[in-house]
Design brief:
The complex is a heterodimer of chains A (86) and B (464). Chain A is mainly α. Chain A is built from three helices and no strands. Chain B is of the alpha/beta class and 464 residues long. Chain B has one domain: Amidase signature (AS) enzymes (Alpha-Beta Complex). In chain B, 40% of the residues lie in helices and 14% in strands. Chain B has 16 helices and eleven strands. Chain B has helices at residues 7-16, 22-40, 48-63, 105-112, 155-162, 179-185, 219-229, 265-269, 272-288, 301-320, 332-335, 338-350, 357-377, 402-406, 413-418, 446-459, and strands at 43-45, 74-78, 116-121, 168-173, 188-191, 211-216, 259-263, 292-296, 383-387, 421-430, 433-441. Chain B has an eleven-stranded mixed sheet with strand order 1-3-2-4-6-5-10-11-9-7-8, with helices on both faces. Chain B starts with 6 loop residues before the first helix and ends in a 5-residue tail after the last helix. The chains are: A mainly alpha (86), B alpha/beta (464).
């Protein structure tokens, strides 16, 4: 199973490079101009001020999605497993 | 004056007049859903009691004289928009055990206007797909073109509307994900101007392109749902602070005086039978209204495709870094399907410092070029129309290479890159498959799109 996934990943990596080369070839020869990141010309940069609201139910619901939680409401994670590859 | 003959209008009137209660409405849909959903696979999370409870509350409010804009209409929601208490999985194993702890801003607005959430719809995993077949929960089936894909990524939402499993639906559109399935399922869909609808609570595919939008059986329904969800959200940096005059009350199909642009590049890229249907409808519009069809040019629409897939890969890679399986769900790379992995891998290349100028910057420059081309084209016309999709939907099980699948988006992507609004409306059936007309208008001119769609709907009698 793990082997099949590795083979698949290798195939996808090869395909990814090939596709990107295709895209780059397609975009070559176009005139240089400025870049557009977001379309909003006038972004709303200021959030409304107010007093923070504590939503106890939200915390409970959020923790119910966590893989492991201790009795004090902390999420328990395996940093070693998480940091492995990717 | 709003168009009063539509399916949505009649349903609203029935509920408001007491002829039909909100509870009866939801129960009718739930019964139909029990019968049809096992085959169509449009919904992936339905909670009967929750929906009925919400409908009861709407009935109480209506009896007390409080009538919201949606008044008990049932709304289906794509599985990438947070609805409290429902599993919002993005049709991926990654989030298959994630129950939303909050409502997205658009859902709060729908509930405030008495919309009833009927369930969560299937989609291509993390919105990565054009067919509706790339879901952890299996493919969605097209009720109006048997044996063919429904289109994606908002496949379940389009199918739910087409099969009359809901009144209205929400989808999200990054490069055509509302318009493609709406077109191939024969319903109305709209991608709003970027920034018109809040994205807070949407699990994003590409944050600079995504927009939540409506799918409906008719232009009036789409306008009504857009009216409810659109508008400034102070907590969100990309929403536009603009004055909105109401969409639904202005959908009257009055297009006299319109100059309708047709890009000359469309014909070459489109299946000739689909293109002929588009020309047929344009001729009909010219004969029936005081409109003029003018030729415009969008020379970079093919380049837009390549630029789009570079930008999407970069933004998707960034957006998915939080799916590490630590706080919720599973680590995405361990469990996702091929297309999602393909985009993540491509994104990791595109975002490397040494490749930045070669890929990402170039793609962002193309975005500027596409935007300028639209601005120039709109100097000559009020709307630009053309086919929504270049081909008929592929047959179920038909293998497409990634490039073949990406090229299906060639007509829808430019509107996302330019940030303008674009909708699709059914114009008939060719070989038993629905065909759609795409209507694009400048930023914040959704009403032009709705009115042209309404005019088309009044001329083309759709038999679903």
């Amino acid at each position: 199973m793990a082997m099949a996934r590795d083979d698949k990943l290798k195939q996808i990596e090869d395909e990814a490079e090939e596709l990107l080369q295709h895209f780059v070839r397609d975009l070559s020869g176009l005139p240089r101009c400025e870049e557009t990141y977001y379309d909003s010309a006038f972004p709303n940069m200021v959030r409304r001020e107010g007093t923070p609201r504590r939503r106890r139910l939200f915390r409970r619901l959020f923790l119910s999605n966590a893989p492991r939680v201790d009795g004090k409401g902390h999420i328990l994670t395996e940093s070693a497993s998480w940091s492995r590859a990717g | 004056m709003a168009y009063r003959g539509s399916t949505t209008w009649r349903k609203l009137e029935a509920i408001r007049s007491g002829e039909l209660s909100a509870v009866e409405n939801v129960e009718l849909f739930l019964e139909r859903l029990r019968e049809l959903n096992p085959k169509l696979n449009a919904f992936i999370d339905v909670r009967h009691e929750k929906s009925i409870r919400q409908a009861r509350s709407v009935d109480r409010q209506i009896r007390a004289g409080k009538v919201g804009k949606l008044s008990g209409l049932c709304v289906a929601v794509k599985a990438n928009i947070n609805v409290k208490g429902f599993t919002i999985s993005c049709a991926s194993k990654t989030l298959s055990n994630y129950v939303a702890p909050y409502d997205a801003e658009v859902i709060r607005r729908i509930k405030r206007e008495q919309g009833v959430i009927i369930g969560i719809t299937n989609m291509d995993e993390f919105a990565c797909g054009t067919t509706g077949c790339r879901s952890f929960y299996g493919p969605t089936l097209n009720p109006r073109a048997e044996g063919r894909v429904p289109g994606g990524s908002s496949s379940g939402s389009a199918v739910a509307v087409a099969a009359e499993l809901c009144d209205l639906a929400l989808g999200s559109d990054t490069g055509g994900s509302i318009r493609a399935p709406a077109c191939w399922c024969g319903v109305v869909g709209l991608k709003p101007t970027y920034g018109l609808v809040p994205r807070q609570g949407l699990i994003d595919l590409a944050m600079s392109l995504d927009q939540i939008g409506p799918l409906a059986p008719d232009p009036y329904g789409a306008a009504l749902l857009l009216e409810v969800i659109a508008g400034y959200n102070p907590g969100e940096v990309t929403t536009l602070n603009v004055l909105l005059n109401g969409f639904s009350s202005n959908v009257d199909g009055d297009i006299d005086g319109f100059r309708i642009g047709l890009a000359k590049q469309y014909e070459e890229l489109c299946n000739p039978r689909i293109y002929s249907k588009v020309i047929e409808v344009l001729n009909l519009l010219e004969r029936s209204f005081d409109v003029e069809v003018v030729e415009v040019s969008l020379p970079s629409i093919e380049k837009a495709l390549s630029a789009y897939y570079i930008i999407v890969s970069a933004e998707f890679y960034s957006a998915t870094r939080r799916f590490d399986g630590r706080r919720y769900g599973f680590k995405i790379e361990d469990v996702c399907l091929d297309e999602v992995l393909r985009r993540i891998v491509r994104g990791s290349y595109v975002t490397r410092r040494e490749y930045r100028g070669r890929f990402y910057e170039k793609a962002l420059q193309v975005r500027t070029i596409v935007k300028r081309e639209f601005l120039r084209a709109f100097e000559k016309c009020d709307v630009i129309v053309g086919p929504t999709m270049p081909t008929f939907p592929p047959k179920l099980g038909e293998e497409l290479s990634p490039l073949e699948e990406y090229s299906l988006d060639v007509f829808t992507i430019p509107a996302n890159l330019a940030g303008i609004c674009a909708g699709t409306v059914p114009i008939g059936v060719v070989d038993g498959v629905p065909v759609g007309l795409q209507v694009q208008a400048p930023h914040l001119h959704e009403i032009r799109v709705f009115n042209l769609m309404q005019a088309v709907s009044s001329l083309v009698k759709w038999v679903g």
